[in-house]
Write a structure and sequence with these properties.
Blueprint: H1 2-20, E1 27-30, E2 33-39, E3 50-60, E4 66-77, E5 83-86, E6 89-92, E7 97-107, E8 114-116, H2 119-122, E9 130-134, E10 137-145, E11 149-152, H3 158-166, H4 181-192
Parallel strand pairs: 2-11
Antiparallel strand pairs: 1-6, 2-5, 3-4, 3-7, 7-8, 9-10, 10-11
Length: 195
């Protein structure tokens, strides 16, 4: 009986301390994300772009460091108006873990793909213009304008198309191919098409 009390009191202390510690949140929550993907030159909506949300956390490691990992992924396609919606997401995470920014992947064959943290834009909390270039091509730029509107450029060469595809590869220990069937199907079609 005494051992049970010690275990219960220890668990209560851990839970109480976790409520006051950045490294101990137990509930992971992200709101609904919405946005529109547009061709940067024509300003026309891009239908059929895959949008992937990577829900991420960090966990306190041994020593002074921490390790980040993907908790879950959600995917969707843009509609004929270039619009997408990813429902809200909530889960539990273990003690001594904390939420880190969600990463978004935008992929459409023939376009320069993106892998960015745009949470504030896709929830409508940020609307200032963001402009950037791709690490593999300073000539290609993307823009985020208004809440959730992302403008991406077409790629012009086989090399650019291959780099665009490779820049969004996320499969590994944290994500299995079966978790992203739409993304996986489009990537396979891109491979089979010979870029």
């Amino acid at each position: 009986m005494k051992t049970v009390r010690i275990v219960i009191v220890s668990l209560l202390i851990v839970l109480l301390l976790s409520a006051y510690s950045e490294a101990g949140w137990l509930i992971y929550h992200e709101p609904e994300f919405q946005g529109t993907i547009v061709d940067i030159d024509s300003k026309q909506p891009i239908e059929g772009a895959v949008i992937v949300a990577e829900y991420r956390k960090a966990t306190m490691g041994l020593g002074a460091g921490s390790m980040s990992s993907i908790i879950d992924v959600r995917e969707t396609l843009t509609d004929k108006d270039g619009h997408f919606r990813i429902p809200s997401y909530t889960t539990l995470i273990q003690p001594f873990s904390w939420q880190i920014p969600t990463i978004f992947i935008i992929f459409k064959p023939g376009y320069a793909s993106l892998k960015l943290g745009l949470k504030e834009y896709f929830t409508g909390h940020k609307s200032d213009e963001l402009k950037g270039s791709y690490p593999w091509s300073s000539e290609l730029i993307y823009r985020v304008i208004g809440p959730g509107i992302v403008e991406i450029p077409k790629v012009k060469t086989k090399e650019e198309r291959e780099k665009a595809r490779m820049s969004v590869d996320i499969f590994g220990a944290d994500v299995k191919e079966s978790e992203l069937p739409i993304f996986n199907k489009i990537i396979k079609e891109e491979y089979q098409g010979g870029f």
